[in-house]
Amino acid sequence: MKSDFYSGRFDSIQAMRGLAALSVIFHHISFIENGSFGVDIFFCISGFIMMYVTHKSTEKFIIKRLIRIVPLYYCITFATFAGLVIYPALFDKTSADPLYLLKSCLFLTPLFGGPRQPVVKVGWTLNYEMLFYFVIWAAMHINKRYRGAIASFILVCLIVLGKFAGTDNTIMLEFIYGIIAYELLRRFNYDRVKNVGNLRTVIMSVVALVCLIFMVSVKYVDVLRGMNRIAVYGAPAFIFFILVFIVCHEKKILSFCVYLGNISYSMYLMHYFIARFFNKFGEGLPRPVIVVSVVGLSVAAGSLSFYVFERKLNGWLRTRFNI
Fold it and tell me: Domain boundaries in the chain?
């Protein structure tokens, strides 16, 4: 293991987060509807990052995760619920039910037949994220050194229990992909791919590109969920993540790509409403105009949200909790 592995900046991960967020935006544009593999990339990244941060420090782990996720999500959830009450015709497959709002705020997963989609439709991924955070937290309190193996075992047990309850949560296996990626990448000898023109670097770059093209080429309706998704989206996302991480390790990444990664959480939560608006009221507009508008407004909204919530409010909360 390289001693500096835990002291470096992983700009490549931020760039991949930005790519994942953009792909999900494209998925929610009605005449494209392809790019949901961004979620699979997000889950692989999450598995890696949770292992990485808990190696460095386990202090106030859950509080840190809640501060990272909750403020913006709750704000958008309550705003959406207010919209449901005032103008329900704008929303699909969501109801202004206070109990439904409570379940959404508590991140209740569909593990045992609960609602798959919360008030904020794209928040279904956060249900799984929050569950994974608590699994990691439990695992590291059992044995920090083997937290990855313990967390993986717990996730598999939860998936099996969900199957008995008639619920498919197989996508949680992708967190295990991220855990495996962490164990591989922390041991990798990066000197082998230090030079850009190195044959190994070229081969890895080509394979990563092939994985990305493959994910783009497969329509979501042909994958949906279950083992099919884990194989067709999850496995290429896992390979793509590992190879991009290795090839880009300690290399300069375009600052705009890193910036998209920085605002990816805000952009992910806010883009759906923008895409939904253009899907509903943008009929007659040229398709390129719709794509540019949805992406541009999503980046703008994500940027504003990033500075207001993730920088200012979250920063204040971290100070408040002495984190």
Answer: 3-320
